[in-house]
Design goal:
Structural class: alpha+beta
Number of helices: 10
Strand order of the largest sheet: 10-11-12-13-14-15-16-17-18-19-20-22
Distance between the termini: 66 Å
Helix content: 25-40%
Radius of gyration: 25 Å
Shape: globular
Oligomer: single chain
Length: 515
């Protein structure tokens, strides 16, 4: 059958599948392009992608998506299907989704979906015979979508010898309004699965079928299940720049049709109750040495106020077997903390810029993932969670001001801890209550401090406490894991009802890592 007839057949199938989904569409426009390529030549053939695409298309229709489905697509068919999706989404402020299963490659930090008619023998062949993921990103951008979701189960072993120098897919930042998900971390390969679906897609299908399927909860749970099943050799990866809380299935409407009413944020008193329940679950496992206890906790609380602390503990008990390749031009943050490491830093008043004090922090002991600084004056965990600060305040769980996993632009997390502060002149009788920080990685940039000019991730956060303190925190962290500058702009409520300023900056003067 010639290419023209194949293309006509494929687009007719797309039209029929789209029409059949119209009756299930929610009030907003949701268009999903689902592609599954299995029928590659010879040893490049894959078992599950076509099955994955069929199952994913069926599930997405239940969730109100109009589905454009293409299985075993040629390059022409794939590009035509992308254009068809753009036309259906054009100017409708809708939700566009790509699900792709099949072979994928990275060339010069660009990601390519490989059609079944590709026969690449070189890097240039990959570029000319495959479909650049940016074609989908551009199509969704031209359509003016409100939300874009790109899911790639495309990190299998590359069977086309001599075509791609790097494994898996390249890490890229999600463009504004986009959620990007890979079946495994950038630069790594994924399992095609043992059953009728790939390992990643099989768990994704299960999570999408559950009520109240918030997008970040869905993919966090999938990541945990794949990691646990693969014993850490495959860990899915996500990057997001979504500003709204997209829900696949809010569980509030009849059947599986999805309501478009935004899920309301919990009120302060409801958040307090959520924290107490989460804290009670944490207290039951925090001394455990069994990784399964933390997997179970994170399945229940995938994006809770203690999730980063739990993830940190899981990483200590069951270390990941892979490392994600960073975005081009960036460095991963290495958390290689050793006894004898020293940092000298200076504190200044935020307004006057006058120096208020200096300190030298030295790592004096490390045991079971706990780092003692200056003989226990400060205690942190290996992923930057504060257990005790230099004022003597103790945090349970650790206040996770650094993300437990890799730094990515757009990464967001909330950390809340129960704090106990001993009696001081400013807090006679001591102080107890929760402390919360809502954090986001916002940039990778050059920063100049006394110690020199260096590249660093900038992280911004909102701080609040049960006692009424509130304000902003910004810090810059380098590839060696050092926070080289921190800016704190905080107002503290006094017991007489007034407020006092507690704003200052902290800057690194010297870093010493004996080796």
């Amino acid at each position: 059958m010639d290419t023209k007839r194949l293309l006509t057949r494929a687009l007719l199938a797309v039209a029929l599948l789209t029409t059949s989904a119209q009756a299930n569409a929610p009030l907003d426009v949701r268009i999903a392009l689902v592609i599954g390529n299995s029928a590659y030549p010879g040893n490049a053939a894959l078992t599950n992608p076509a099955n994955d695409a069929k199952a994913m298309a069926e599930q997405l229709r239940k969730l109100g998506f109009q589905v454009l489905e293409l299985r075993d697509g040629s390059r022409d068919q794939m590009t035509q299907a992308i254009d068809a999706a753009r036309k259906q989404l054009q100017g409708k402020n809708g939700v566009g989704m790509l699900y792709y299963a099949g072979h994928g490659m990275q060339i010069d930090w660009r990601n390519y979906m490989v059609p079944v008619d590709a026969r690449p023998r070189s890097e240039q062949d990959v570029v000319t015979q495959s479909v650049d993921l940016d074609a989908v990103v551009s199509a969704f951008k031209q359509a003016g979508n409100r939300v874009n979701i790109l899911v790639l189960d495309a990190c299998r072993n590359n069977p086309f010898e001599g075509t791609a120098p790097a494994k898996g897919l390249a890490q890229i930042d999600a463009v504004p309004g986009t959620f990007l998900a890979y079946a495994t971390a950038p630069g790594n390969t994924a399992d095609d699965g043992e059953g009728s679906n790939g390992l990643y897609t099989g768990y994704l299908l299960q999570e999408l079928a559950k009520p109240t399927a918030r997008i970040e909860d869905v993919f966090k749970r999938v990541r945990l299940q794949v990691r646990q099943k693969s014993r850490g050799s495959q860990i899915p990866w996500e990057s997001t720049s979504l500003e709204e809380d997209f829900v696949f299935n809010d569980g509030r409407s009849s059947g599986t049709i999805v309501s478009t009413t935004p899920v309301p944020k919990p009120k302060p008193e409801e958040r307090d109750q959520l924290f107490l329940r989460e804290k009670a679950d944490w207290d039951r496992i925090k001394q455990s040495r069994n990784p399964d206890d933390f997997y179970a906790f994170l399945q229940t609380h995938p994006n809770g106020m203690i999730s980063e602390a739990a993830q940190s503990q899981l990483d200590q008990l069951s270390k990941p077997q892979i490392t994600a390749t960073p975005v081009q031009g960036r460095h991963t943050v290495q958390r290689d903390v050793r006894v004898g490491d020293e940092i000298e830093q200076v504190y200044r008043d935020y307004l006057t810029k006058l120096e208020t004090r200096r300190e030298t922090l030295r790592v004096t002991a490390i045991k079971d993932g706990v780092v003692e600084i200056n003989n226990g004056q400060q205690i942190v965990n290996l992923t930057g969670g504060t257990i005790r600060n230099d004022f003597g305040a103790v945090f349970d769980p650790p206040l996770q001001v650094l993300p437990a996993d890799d730094f990515q632009i757009g990464k967001k997390w909330i950390t809340r801890s129960q704090m106990a502060l001993p009696s001081t002149s400013e807090t006679p009788g001591g102080l107890t209550g929760w402390v919360e920080q809502e954090m986001k990685v916002v940039a990778y940039e050059q920063i100049t401090v006394v110690a020199g000019t260096m590249s660093a991730y900038r992280v911004e956060g909102i701080l609040s406490t049960q006692s009424g303190a509130s304000g902003k925190i910004t810090y810059w962290i380098t590839s060696n894991g050092s926070i080289v500058k921190l800016v704190r702009e905080v107002k503290i409520r006094r017991r007489d009802g007034g407020t006092r300023d507690d704003s200052w900056t902290r800057e690194v003067l010297r870093i010493h890592k004996p080796r």
